[in-house]
UniProtKB/TrEMBL annotation:
It comes from the Bacteria. GO terms for cellular component: plasma membrane. This is Type VII secretion protein EccE. InterPro entries: EccE_dom, T7SS_EccE. Belongs to the EccE family. It is found in: Cell membrane. Keywords: Cell membrane, Membrane, Transmembrane, Transmembrane helix. Residues 20-124 form the Type VII secretion system protein EccE domain. Transmembrane segments: none annotated.
Length: 218
């Protein structure tokens, strides 16, 4: 996560930025105590039981990731805070009165801005036909835009019966409003070529931001 003014970031942008300089994957787990009442009660009940049940679920997810051949690290609280800052593409600011007096964010109908980066979020309202090969190709294409960063959030939740509810949000972070517009056009074109449909979350950019950070859901 580099400031857009840094030499490395500017050099990367100058060569086209068609391949992500870095890819990071977070798997966030969210527990609904009411739907997991049995697991919570089996571990003592109350908030302590919920925390223990959540930790058990997180450990299982980490084990499954490692079983698939990847490395997985369960984040501590400071590491989670750092991950949220990275996901939002915001810069660390030292605590002082002058920094506190300056507003760092702005939200309009089409974008959310913070620390000199412009963000806009899309909802994948029509997924393409996924298969073992095409799903990887689709997410690789939409995740390699000419922008500062692209965040792709895939949310899975228990649906009705044995079904799984799926939703996907894609957020672009750009160095200027013009670059944001251009990157958005590239994203829409690539999604269309894959047979997918996107809806930009005009008027809901802040909720769109929240939907694309590792908090375990919308």
């Amino acid at each position: 996560h580099l400031p857009r003014q840094s030499l490395s970031a500017r050099s990367y942008q100058s060569i086209g930025a068609t391949v992500p300089a870095q890819r990071t994957t977070w798997a966030a787990v969210r527990l609904d105590p009411e739907r997991a009442e049995g697991a919570v009660q089996a571990r003592g009940g109350g908030s302590i039981g919920a925390q223990r049940a959540l930790l058990t679920a997180v450990q299982r997810v980490a084990s499954q990731i490692e079983g698939a051949g990847f490395e997985a690290t369960i984040l501590s609280e400071p590491e989670l805070i750092s991950a949220l800052g990275t996901a939002c593409h915001v810069m660390q600011v030292a605590a002082n009165t002058s920094a506190a007096a300056n507003r760092r964010t702005e939200e309009t109908r089409r974008y959310w801005r913070c620390d000199g980066s412009w963000h806009t979020t899309y909802w994948l309202d029509k997924p393409p036909t996924f298969s073992d090969r095409t799903s990887a190709d689709f997410f690789a294409n939409v995740g390699s835009l000419p922008a500062l960063a692209t965040s792709v959030a895939v949310n899975l939740a228990k649906g009705t019966g044995d079904s799984v509810a799926f939703s996907c949000f894609i957020r672009i972070a750009a160095g200027s409003e013009q670059q944001l517009t251009e990157s958005g056009k590239v994203l829409e074109q690539r999604a269309g070529q894959a047979g997918a449909g996107l809806t930009r979350l005009d008027g809901e950019q802040l909720p769109g931001l929240v939907a694309t950070v590792p908090l375990g859901g919308e």
